[in-house]
Design goal:
Layout lengths: L1 H20 L21 E3 L5 E3 H5 L4 E5 L6 H12 L1 H6 L3 E6 L3 H10 L5 E4 L4 H5 L3 E3 L5 H7 L7 E3 L2 E5 L5 E6 L9 H14 L1
Length: about 200
């Protein structure tokens, strides 16, 4: 019995190691989920430390889902602030905005305050969501210590490619913008145009 338990523990550890080892080396090599596929139901942490399943969040309203590198990234902060400026128009169109990063839940509140964000931020510090969505890749070595600290010790060396997904209340992807060049982001004006088009076609 002890041998069987030991084997299970070892296999579990190997699976975790393999999933990390098999991360794409470069942002250009990711294999993201496609339009028409569903967001996997993964637990996230809110800024107060509570756990929420992502599908429980997405089920509330059609969603603009932003996945960003972290509050340390100036390009992410500029993009988050730009989307904030369009929030009222996005809400009028019937959507909610949800942003997710590998930052620890304790760092989310700071990011929200610094960028004056009124939409919800969630923590995917261990990367389960971005890995399941196929947008995670192995972070350059220079980022590893910072990512480890900012995630509360859960990020062992991955980054998400900054992405924008639009989902229905069933969690299915209706639109996506994924660019391995992290400095290039989907503009708020183009996002609003996409949302308007989705309303007329769905």
């Amino acid at each position: 019995m002890k041998k069987q338990l030991l084997l299970i523990v070892l296999l579990t550890g190997l699976v975790g190691f393999q999933s990390y080892a098999q991360l794409p080396e470069k942002a250009e090599d990711i294999s993201p989920l496609l339009v028409g596929e569903s967001i996997p139901d993964v637990a996230l942490k809110a800024p107060d430390g509570s756990d929420l399943q992502i599908l429980d969040i997405l089920n509330q309203k059609p969603t603009v889902l932003l996945l960003y590198r972290g509050g340390w990234c100036p390009y992410c902060n500029i993009h988050l602030a730009e989307i904030q400026e369009a929030e009222s128009e996005i809400i009028k169109l019937g959507y909610q905005i949800v942003a997710i990063s590998p930052d620890s839940y304790k760092n989310l509140q700071l990011s929200g305050e610094e960028n004056k964000l009124s939409y919800n931020l969630y923590s995917d510090a261990d990367g389960k969501l971005c890995k399941a969505m196929g947008i995670a890749f192995k972070a350059p070595d220079k980022y590893e210590n910072m990512l480890f600290e900012d995630s509360g010790g859960l990020n062992k060396g991955f980054l998400p490619v900054p992405s924008v997904f639009v989902t229905g209340t069933d969690g299915k992807i209706l639109f996506e913008y994924i660019n391995p060049e992290y400095k290039t982001r989907l503009s708020a004006s183009l996002l609003v145009a996409v949302l308007k088009n989705l309303i007329t076609t769905n």
